[in-house]
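PROTOCOL LOG
Step 1. Enter all chains and additional molecules of the complex.
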Amino acid sequence: MSKFLSTLIVAGLLASSTAVVAGTETTDTTEATEATTEAVAIVVDEALALKGKKVFKKCKACHKVGEGAKNGVGPLLNGIYGAEMAANADFKYSKGMKARAEESATWTDENMREFLTSPKKYVTKTKMSFKGVKEKDMDAIIEFLKSVSM
Ligand code: HEC
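Step 2. Run joint prediction.
Step 3. Record the structure below.
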């Protein structure tokens, strides 16, 4: 009789521990999925982006952003952060820019900084006649470009 009872208890323990393991596995999978999504998503520091909006005044003569933005002297910059380089089908890029796009492919934090520090150095014979963004304004302008890319 006591042997029968203990068998029942063991069976019960096994059953409940299986349930717990199954539960934990489900949660883990969900968390892992969320973590992956977060890593890909663009996270923006709003205050810094607002500062960048002011820096963007320097770009406005040639670049538009926001709803209804169109290409001007330069291509519109909605969604540019993380986008393919020189991929705006309605804009006529310089040969230099197209060549650079073949090498670097997408706009990242790093190459955007390099380009904006000195467009002419990063893209040989670029059509973008702009001498560059100052180091002190760089974080802000990058953040602003991110904010129009979400
Ligand atoms: C005098 C006009 C002018 C100004 C000012 C200017 N740009 Fe440009 N920009 C251009 C042109 C033209 C191109 C295309 C370059 C090429 O084809 O060589 C370009 C290209 C770019 C690209 C690459 C776009 C793509 O589709 O890959 C980015 C990013 C960019 N500019 C950001 C900026 C930012 C940020 C500023 C201000 C800090 C700025 N530009 C100021 C004219 C300008």
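Step 4. Note key features.
The chain is about 55% helix and 0% strand.
The helical segments are 2-40, 46-55, 95-104, 109-117, 119-122, 135-147.
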